[in-house]
Amino acid sequence: MKGLKGVIGRVRGWRRGWHERSKLQRIDLYTRVTLCSIIWLFAVSWGLLPLGETLGRGAVTIALGGAFLAANVVQSVLSSRNLTPAFEDYRGTAPFPARRLRLPAVLQVVMTGLLVALAGVGGVKDEGLVLLLLDLPVAFAVPYVLLVPVRRFLLHAAAFSVAGVALLAAVGVPGGQLFGAFVSLAVVTLLVLVSGRPSAWSLSVMWQAEEARDMQARLAVAEERLRFGRDMHDVLGRNLSVIALKSELAVELAQRGNPAAVDQMVEVQRIARASQQEVRDVVRGYREADLPTELMGARGVLEAAGISVSVEGADGPAGIGAPAAVQAALGWVVRETATNVLRHGDPRHCRIRLARTRDAVVLEVENDGAGPVGSPGGPDSGAGEGDGSDGGGGAGLRGLRERLGALGGTLSAGGAGDDLFRVTATVPLTDPRTRPGGRGASSPAPSRAAASLSSSASSASSDPAASSDPASASAPPEER
Predict the structure, then answer these.
(1) Of 146, 188, 351, 422, most Cβ neighbours within 10 A?
(2) What are phi and psi of 237, to 5 degrees?
């Protein structure tokens, strides 16, 4: 009773293990089991039944038949064990140890010798000899066909067939049986080839497709992480700069006893709340920069820092007629460059030019106070490269180039002479990726938090304490 329960438990375990496998793992297991079944099917049928003729034909014949059967069983066991490593070698995941073929090769030679000896003593004749020849190379050939190229396998099979037929002829097998023996060896060679190689090839292709899907999923996750990090950098970079600037201004006003310090801290509070909302929008995936809003926000923030700003454009940002994705990408450029103007150098004037050519939209942001070449904030410094986060890695400009590159656009930044620094963004209008809803924008919905921040910055620009107090001009360059 206990034995029966144990068998039932094993069957249930096998069934549970089968259902826990993926579809591809089931196909993999099915293919391997099928090839193993072919090996044992040949060994039990064509390798065993003809040996019945040896019974009653003398002790030598029986001994030769028994030895052939034992060698065939051992060869089948070794072939079944070598099948999985042969599959792994075919897929290129793990090399097949050459030493594992030594014993099967020796057994193949022994089995061939035993079969020739049986034919020589008359132990098997006619149909029996043909069946044993059909079984003779199967166990060795099934894993071997996966380990070598097809041409080499056919050459080795042809050499084996010729050698086998020659040995049979040497022991006196008639010519008609020799021809049947050669045909049998050729047929079984082709049978192993067309059953083993296509199965391994199809299985390998399916595994490669599965690995490609896994890789695509991992790349999608990595891309989303990069997008999220870029959006967080773009959203918080300018806001934190404005908060730092206004906090410093409030401290200086408070030290002088100026009640305007309270107004500055109120503005800091408003900007911080707007930043919280923007972070929520980024997390939810609904953040998109708006070009008109970003231009107004940049003007308000820069003027609040004591920097004069001029925005040039024939028809204004709303009249350039560019797709929403293009305007969103340029909005991120305005946001990032305004952050850099605040943080780097010692600017007094910033000029923003927006123009539409025949097939592109061009945005230029130019500021003075870049400093000499090689100095902090200068054209060749890390800050001059537009880093909006760490002041030396150029992460800000790299993020902008990724955004514009998704739309087929370009970004250039560098010194423009006379202590000037210029950022130029060009986005084509004819590229199919610039259609509304393209990948140039980080998400499909406009930002309410950006408008809130812009209104805060605009109100700060009208504050007399922020625009006229010398404290705004005395802020350290790295904070501006």
Answers:
(1) 146
(2) -60, -55
Tokens of 383: 């800050």
Distance separating alpha carbons of residues 128 and 145, to the nearest angstrom: 26
pLDDT at 107: 94
Mean pLDDT of all residues in 252-262 = 86
Give the end-to-end CA distance of the chain in Å, rounded to a whole number: 86
Tell me the three state secondary structure of residue 157.
helix
pTM of the model: 0.49
Distance CA 100, CA 331 (A): 65
Q: How far apart are CA 150 and CA 437, in angstroms?
A: 51
CB count in 10 Å sphere of residue 233: 19
- At 375, list the tokens: 């100095």
Question: At residue 251, what is the residue type?
Answer: V
Q: Which token pair is 207? A: 């595994």
Q: Measuring CA to CA, which residue among 400, 399, 394 is closest to residue 379?
A: 394
Collect all residues with Cβ–Cβ distance below 8 Å to 262 and sequence separation of at least 6.
250
Q: Are strands 349-356 and 360-367 parallel, antiparallel or unpaired?
A: antiparallel
Name the pLDDT band for 453 (thresholds 50, 70, 90). Answer: very low
Query: Which residue type, as a one-letter code, is found at position 196?
Result: G
Edge-first strand listing for the sheet containing 410-417: 308-312, 349-356, 360-367, 420-428, 410-417
Longest dimension (CA), the chain: 123
| pLDDT tens readout for residues 347-372 | 889 999 988 888 888 999 999 887 65
- The structure tokens 């870029």 sit at 230
Q: Which of 79-93, 200-214, 336-350, 402-416 has the highest mean pLDDT?
A: 79-93
The candidate with the shortest Cα–Cα distance to 456, out of 247, 273, 200, 183, is 273
b (16+ CB within 10 A) / e for 244-267? bbbebbbebbeeeebebbebbbeb
